[in-house]
Amino acid sequence: MLNEEQDLLPVEQQTLTFYGKPIVVARLPDGQPGVVLRFLCENLQIDTAAQTQRIRRTEAIAEDLVFCAGRD
């Protein structure tokens, strides 16, 4: 199980278009898909910090929030 204190390097990374704007998606070392939350929130025009807090408070998805070192 991953936690928010781990930094991960994606094994694969692509940029897709979401709501007409770029969004970075990745495959993590354990094979799980990932998305850059900042880009997702920006495309939906919601606050990234607030959404991160909501995710951390939601037990069902909190453990899936990981920080991944990626390329900008």
Write a short abstract of this structure.
The chain contains 3 helices and 5 strands. The protein is α+β, with helices and mostly antiparallel strands.
Topology at a glance:
Elements: E1 7-8, E2 12-18, E3 21-27, E4 33-35, H1 37-44, H2 48-57, H3 59-62, E5 67-68
Parallel strand pairs: 1-5
Antiparallel strand pairs: 2-3, 3-4
Tertiary shape: flat
> What is the beta-strand fraction?
25-35%
- Structurally, the number of domains stands at 1
> Please, what is the average pLDDT?
84
What is the radius of gyration computed over CA atoms, rounded to a whole number of angstroms?
A: 12 Å
Element pattern in H and E: EEEEHHHE
Neighbour order of strands in the largest sheet: 2-3-4
Unreliable stretches? 1-5
**How many strand units?**
5
The assigned structural class equals alpha+beta
Count of separate DSSP helical elements: 3
Account of the protein in words:
- The chain is of the alpha+beta class and 72 residues long.
- The chain has one domain (7-68).
- It contains three helices and five strands; from the N terminus they run ββββαααβ.
- The strands form two sheets. The protein has a three-stranded antiparallel sheet with strand order 2-3-4. A two-stranded parallel sheet has the order 1-5.
- Strand 3 and strand 4 (33-35) form a beta hairpin.
- Residues 1-5 have low confidence and may be disordered.
